[in-house]
Amino acid sequence: MTSSSSMSGPEFFASLGTVQMIASILVAVVASVIVASEFSGGTIKLLLARPYSRSQILASKFLVVLLYAVITSIVLLVSAFLFSLFLSGGDYLLPVSLDLGALNAVQAALLLLGSNFILMTVYASIAFLFSSVVRSQALAVGVSLGVLFSGSVLTALLPIAIAKYDWMKWILFNLLNLNSAVSGNPIAGGLAVWQIIAGLFVYIIIFLGLSFFIFKKRDVALS
């Protein structure tokens, strides 16, 4: 990874300061505790006593997580731009790298921001699932962050596995390399960006579907 000290301002902005993982961690933590905290704090019964269905309650909480992800993305974009102004100069409207073709720094930053928002939604849906399953906030956060950080370890092993079993290119940990793909670096299995995004949305639907199913069936009296 290129250090920020050797980057020009536009290059730093185009990469969003290479700190997208921090934004993903923050969103995953919020998604992990937003439901689990209701159970561990004993407020879930009061919440369910309101004239709303469990699906409506869970949907509203996930919308809160998405809103937090939007705010976090905006803060990330603005922070990266402001910090880039302190680095060596350059034109933000000229192509920023060969890997990104004709994209300038602003276009590259927005593209990366969009792909990172999709990844944050994936991490949020995973964390949301664990938050709906377990009663402990700490356990929900720990498991969710474990999934998030284990991805980088498994990514190193994926090319070997995919070379032997082509279907493994569709497993979640390979698709989580979306940011790398939109930055011009092909991922294992040679999937196009649109294929990666489509695959991630399938996983999001699965995780959210499981979350709603489990939450609707969960016995609050035993929680």
Could you characterize the architecture of this molecule?
This protein is mainly alpha-helical. The protein has one domain (7-222). Helix content is 69%, strand content 0%. The chain is built from nine helices and no strands. The longest helix has 31 residues, at 54-84. It starts with 8 loop residues before the first helix and ends in a 6-residue tail after the last helix. 34% of the residues are buried.
Order of helices and strands: HHHHHHHHH
Number of strand elements: 0
- Report the mean per-residue pLDDT as an integer: 83
Kindly provide the radius of gyration, computed on alpha-carbon positions and rounded to a whole number of angstroms: 19 Å
Q: Name the overall outline.
A: globular
Number of domains: 1
GO molecular function: ABC-type transporter activity
Organism: Listeria fleischmannii FSL S10-1203
Keywords: Membrane, Transmembrane, Transmembrane helix
Transmembrane segments: 12-37, 58-86, 106-131, 138-162, 192-215
